[in-house]
Amino acid sequence: MNTTRRFWFYTVTLITLGIFITGVGQLLALLFDVLIKSSYGTQIGGANFHEQQLSLGLAMMVIGGPLWFFFWQAVQRRVKGNPEEIGAALRKLFLNFILLISAITAIIAASDFIKWLFSGVQRADFSPGGLATMIVAGIVWFYHRQLSESEGHPSSAARTLRRWYVYPLALFGLVWLAVGLVQLINTAFSNLPIWGNILIKGQFWNSIAQSSIAMILLGAATWYLHWFRMARDDFDSTLRQVYFYLATISGGAITALVYAIILLDRFFLWVFGGTVVSAVPRFQFLGWAVPAILVGIAIWGYHLRKAQEEAGRVQERRQSSQRIYYYLMAILGLGTTATGLSNLFGILIDTGTSLTVSNGWWQNQLAISLGLLLVGTPLWLYYWNGILKRVQTGGITEWRALSRRIFLYVIVGTSIILLAADLVNIIYQLLRRLLQGNPDSNFMHAAKWSLQTLIVAAALLWYHWQVLRADQRRGAETVVTRKHVTLLADDRTGDLAARLENKLGYQVRTLYQLGQTGAPMAGLPDEEIDNLVSEIQSAASSKIMLVQLNGKITVLPYREK
Prior knowledge:
By secondary structure, this protein is mainly alpha-helical.
């Protein structure tokens, strides 16, 4: 089939499948309502709701079912024995889209059903629509998964689209597992008998605990199936690196960071005698703060260790996602530290004003400031030092990296905007009072936020401007004529390609020989690498082939017809 016809067939098949399964769901919901809830004949708006449901379900099933079957069989006849159709991107998009939607729908519906089972199978709380949705979505998912796995993934597009189903579902399951664990521990902690009569006492086995256990069970099963089974051995995948560095590692670290700040803030409030506006006991927040920190650290630690283990097994370098992760964590730590410093300067400014402030104001401000600084400063120092080491060893590739340019320009630009806004407000407040003839009228208090952020913004601007200018002097923003360089070698460590990329400033495509044609090539000295780079840059063609043969590397410019 050509692309237009293929798109038409799969679109019509998807629409008719939706009509068919909606009709089946309506009929199943009606059946469960009658058999389990025994509520046939319920009147809604003066009309018999179940008769409407029966009519609509039958109509959608009778029309949608044959239409879906006809179009789906037409598609399957064209696919049978045709590898091109099996690996077609539209087919894999169709299958994986259905798998993703049906899986999420089934999981959410199953959560409500399990919660109902845990609550004692109360007929009044039964949701016939939820059970019907779980069954229909589960059958749709199972059928299409069996079909997808039996066909395999013969093309690059097919494997990529499969990953766009596997990794989002793995992340979905992990998030459900984490949230369920935190909620369950918090519920157990909140129902301990140590809180006295401050709270209305309740039983541990409440709806939150039941929902949490359902989330734990379903989240663990979903994560296990998609991460440990379907994503197993999928090392050579860019999306896997995104899952590692931008989702789980960064997500776990950010979760632990946020709740660590809250924990430290509450601790220092208790130490300094600050006030907490809350209806719950002072230390009951530990029930959700500590588990959230531990779960975040566990997610971060596991996936970081896993990513480091796999790094040596991947043929091609996967530096981009890791680099983005480093800069993301650095800017998160820097922002947290800057906020803490700004709050500290605010305390000093407030102490110099004559205005009456609320009781415990400085305790509250100092507590949050110390919490921000104790979490943000080590985070920023750790990742910024890691970035500096990467830059020292990575050379021009690291200096020119898009994530580094964005990081520096975002900080410099944000600092300039903050400085401009602060200076405008300070001058405005000063001139307004001078024109009114009352220059001492609460000027410090009115310009407080501008004064406290001015100092921090100026320091950030000065430091990162120096870094930015140093990168520019190294040629980080010099326009480079990129050539299509392909290296054919038996150096499977990737060291040669990495050294060439560091000198050239762009990626080198690497091909590996199936058989060794000569003695293994020893590491080339830097002088020879520089000579290779010079030959590449001075070549007349934009396409270069580097061939390793008998311990030497030959530069071969070429062109395509």
